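Predict the 3D structure for this chain.
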Amino acid sequence: MNKTWFITGAGSGIGTGIAKAALRAGDRVVATGRNLEKVRNVYPDVAQENIAFVQLDVANEAQAKAAVDEATKRFGRIDVLVNNAGYSLLGNFEQMTTAEIQQQFATNFYGVAHVMQTALPVMRRQRSGHIEQDFVRQPRSGEVNSFQHLTERKDSKCKNAT
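Done. Predicted structure below.
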């Protein structure tokens, strides 16, 4: 059986690489991103029956629910959720504004929570599914990578939760 992958931040970087690998393996992909035109442009030659493009700002709880609903309506299931959307604030922590820190938390922490809270009931009904977290962004020596590294658990219990 082909798997259905739900990938946040599928318009660039690691999200694109994971999506393209899943498509090469014959799986289906729900490619999400804030800028849907950008996401579509990354996959110009993919057969439309294998991919769904869904607008999603993970910081928006209503959009997360709508995106998961659209994915299950289109493909009937979600086998793999890849929480890839996120960003880093680099620089001196004391120079970051409260608004910048709050927006990063809204995306990197609450965004993951919004998508997982909506996708987990789908996986429970299926009695199967995997969740993959993107743990690539790390603080550089001498810099503070805001709160992302503090909010991500890197143990195996979190990486492949079902």
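The chain has six helices and five strands.
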